[in-house]
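User: Sequence in, structure out. Go.
Assistant: Echoing your sequence, followed by the structure tokens.
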Amino acid sequence: MEAKKQYAIRTFMLMPLTTLMLGTCSAQGAQSYQTDYRVSLFGLSIAKASFSTDVSDDRTYKVVGSLSSSGLASLFDDTSGRLDVAGRFANTGPVPTYYAVKYRHGNRDKSTSIAFADGNVTNAVNVPPIKKKNNWVDLKPADLRSVADPISGVMVAADSLDQVCRQTLHLFDGQTRVDLKLSPSGTARPFATKGFKGNAITCSAKFVPVAGFQAGRKAIEYLKNSSKISLTFASLGNSAIYSPVQAKIGTQIGTVTVYATRFEKTQ
């Protein structure tokens, strides 16, 4: 059980798929939001996250968040971190300018920072540097064009709930480039949590690794070929920006669930 909890914590904290679950925004005027998330495995809480989002009148946004292991998992795998994201809203959705995450796993400190310009990656730094293993799929310049960080990239711009699940999200977390191909998985349904009560839409998601990973690695192969993944999106107010309020990710040891315990406009 200890090994399973450690694996689940690393899945939540390090993998681009689950790191991308944390964020929400609106594209209309100066506003602030608070979103809190709980991550569970086998019904047990293993991690939590809290994020504050500010949107200015000039359509720029900033997201500041903290995340850490929790519950029984913190006894076996002590992980904590901070994340900062900045960008602006264009007519097509969020366009990031900066992404940085710093976290401590046990006695080890790690960090990733990414700079963007017009939707393209201009620089990415990992501390310590990435160790490329056998069968490594290298990033190409084209892989880093028209992409977003794992937070900005899941603030989906759509005219309605029905259009959310008809998109492909192009994401880069500083190491790995992935696509999440969304597809409809039913009709809109009511969703309620602290600060929010309204309709939400659930999409099926196909995990497609592009570059920046070890080909043949079991965890990647499972996500690519066997994992059942779903993302549930909702929007605060009349915004045309939809953000995840729930996610379920099938892993080799069980389904990791990310759930918004708070999804609220604070200003």
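User: And one key feature?
Assistant: Confidence is low (pLDDT under 50) at residues 1-27.
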